[in-house]
Amino acid sequence: MKQILLPVCLLCVLLVDVQLVFARDVQLRSRPSDSTSTQSQSSSNQQSNSTRKLSAEERLQRLERILESQGLVDMLVKIENLQSELQILRGELELHTHQLDEIKQRQRDLYVDIDRRLLRLERNGPGPGSSGATGSTAGATSATATVGAVTSSTATNTKPSTTTGSSTDFAAEQKAYQKAFDLLRELRYEQAVTAFNGFITQFPQGRYAHIAQYWIGEANYAQRNFKQAIIDYQKLIDNYPNSPKLAEAMLKIGYSQYELKKFKQAETTLKQLTKNYPGTTEAGQATNLIQKIRLKR
């Protein structure tokens, strides 16, 4: 019996040993899988971290896009503001253009009215021999002397006046004058000045010569060419001392000197105007300008 139990016990011990060895082998084999799972878990963690990192970058990009879109919104707002301001400026420009057209039209009407008055004086009035500034002692004396000279000449000489020329010459003079004046009425100042200078060259003693000289000064004054305007108005005063536009010529000389900031000369001219032509509209304007000059000093 002992002989039988001993082998059985040995067999059991061997089986236990084999099971232990097998268990250890299984355990050893299971360890790499655990490391693999650990690695896979770490890789998954890295992927999740990278996913988190990518989402942060995406958030940053999204924020940048939002900021850029806000910048575009601001730019669009600025563009809309500029467009509205441009529309306002266009409206103001149209308004100023309309006002300028009205001023030009009034200026044309004024030129026509002055020309009509001057021509009426030439036809019906005493002509260039009158002063045009009532109340002027010097002008009245000059006009009286001129009328006396004309009366004396008429009494002693019955021939037609050589200053007016023949009727054909007078018609040519009227045509040339009207051509130059049409340029002035159209506000084509440079062409008008050239035409009036040509008119005076062709008809230096013509009936409308002094009017042409006045318009030359006016054209240069309207262009703010004050230096030349002073010369032209002075020619009117020197060459046509009996013109009815002398007071206005002196006033425009004073205005031109004022614009050129020659205040002392302007005051001297204006004082002479008030002395020669007291009580006239031009004298009143001269007095106002003198006061303005004194305030600047």
UniProtKB/TrEMBL annotation:
<dbReference type="InterPro" id="IPR014162">
    <property type="entry name" value="CpoB_C"/>
</dbReference>
<dbReference type="Pfam" id="PF16331">
    <property type="entry name" value="TolA_bind_tri"/>
</dbReference>
<feature type="domain" description="Outer membrane lipoprotein BamD-like">
    <location>
        <begin position="173"/>
        <end position="294"/>
    </location>
</feature>
<dbReference type="InterPro" id="IPR011990">
    <property type="entry name" value="TPR-like_helical_dom_sf"/>
</dbReference>
<keyword id="KW-0175">Coiled coil</keyword>
<feature type="domain" description="YbgF trimerisation">
    <location>
        <begin position="55"/>
        <end position="126"/>
    </location>
</feature>
<dbReference type="InterPro" id="IPR032519">
    <property type="entry name" value="YbgF_tri"/>
</dbReference>
<keyword id="KW-0808">Transferase</keyword>
<feature type="compositionally biased region" description="Low complexity">
    <location>
        <begin position="133"/>
        <end position="167"/>
    </location>
</feature>
<feature type="compositionally biased region" description="Low complexity">
    <location>
        <begin position="35"/>
        <end position="51"/>
    </location>
</feature>
<dbReference type="InterPro" id="IPR034706">
    <property type="entry name" value="CpoB"/>
</dbReference>
<dbReference type="GO" id="GO:0016740">
    <property type="term" value="F:transferase activity"/>
</dbReference>
<feature type="region of interest" description="Disordered">
    <location>
        <begin position="31"/>
        <end position="55"/>
    </location>
</feature>
<dbReference type="Pfam" id="PF13525">
    <property type="entry name" value="YfiO"/>
</dbReference>
<keyword id="KW-0732">Signal</keyword>
<dbReference type="InterPro" id="IPR019734">
    <property type="entry name" value="TPR_rpt"/>
</dbReference>
<feature type="region of interest" description="Disordered">
    <location>
        <begin position="122"/>
        <end position="167"/>
    </location>
</feature>
<protein>
    <submittedName>
        <fullName>TPR repeat containing exported protein Putative periplasmic protein contains a protein prenylyltransferase domain</fullName>
    </submittedName>
</protein>
<dbReference type="GO" id="GO:0070206">
    <property type="term" value="P:protein trimerization"/>
</dbReference>
<dbReference type="InterPro" id="IPR039565">
    <property type="entry name" value="BamD-like"/>
</dbReference>
<feature type="coiled-coil region">
    <location>
        <begin position="72"/>
        <end position="106"/>
    </location>
</feature>
<dbReference type="GO" id="GO:0051301">
    <property type="term" value="P:cell division"/>
</dbReference>
